[in-house]
Amino acid sequence: MTDIAISRSSSLDGRAALRLGIVLILLVFGYMKFLPYEAEGVAGIARDYWLFGWMYPLIGVAGASIVIGVLELTAGVLIALGGRIPVAGLVGGLMGVATFLVTLSFFFTAPGIVQEGYAFPALASTGQFLAKDIGLLAICVYLTLDARSRLIPTR
After folding, report:
1. Section 14-28 average pLDDT
2. Model pLDDT for residues 58-96, shown as the tens digit of each residue
3. Which residue from 119, 134, 135, 147 has the fewest beta carbons nearer than 10 Å?
4. Rounded distance, CA 40 to CA 104, Å?
5. CA–CA–CA angle 104, 109, 111 (5° rounding)
6. Are 88 and 81 spatial neighbours (Cβ–Cβ below 8 Å)?
7. DSSP letter (8 states) at residue 114
8. Closest C-alpha among 59, 69, 3, 83 to residue 35
9. Which backbone phi and psi does 45 adopt, to 5 degrees?
10. Is the dihedral of CA 75, 79, 35, 111 positive or negative?
């Protein structure tokens, strides 16, 4: 086996591991949005957020959480399919990028990001929860670019 063949198979294994990880996260988090305790938790930071706030008077806490959950589940399924269907991976990856950009934007609006009595980067529990989305965003960017490169091969 040549170095090139080893490099390609290692890249494929790494890509598959990233895909599996982000798919599991999106599917679990999407499922949780259908549960009352999670819907209430999401409402705590999303109800007053410009992007989601309009949903709460229209469809309530459970309805808004379900909409968010459906988007997360859809992104997870599309990213999973992206291993074989690049266009699905591209759309799912873009949905994942949008999801994690939105959640990271809560750093600027949600209460409880920085631990009371301290300055940034001393993150409180909400800030710690959101900080993981930096890595999840990077994974989605990578998978989006990978799907794009499989759709539009370089010359």
Report:
1. 96
2. 999 999 999 999 999 999 999 999 999 999 999 999 999
3. 119
4. 19
5. 105
6. yes
7. B
8. 69
9. -110, -15
10. negative
Instruction: Return the closest-CA partner of residue 96 out of 113, 73, 117, 123.
Output: 73
- Provide the token pair at 74: 């859809």
Backbone angles phi, psi at 123, to 5 degrees: -80, 140
Minimal CA–CA distance to 26: which of 88, 64, 74? 74
Nearest to 90 by CA among 26, 45, 143, 129: 143
Q: Which tokens go with 150?
A: 């499989």
Give which of 129, 38, 29 is closest to 79, Cα–Cα: 29
Query: Whose CA is closest to 45, among 29, 59, 56, 32?
Result: 56
- The verdict on whether omega for the bond into residue 153 sits within 30 degrees of 0, i.e. cis, is no
| Side-chain half-sphere CA neighbours of 112 within 13 A | 7
DSSP 123: B
Which position has the token pair 């989305």? 133
Global confidence as pTM: 0.85
Distance CA 36, CA 25 (A): 19
Tens-place pLDDT, residues 99-113: 999 999 988 877 788
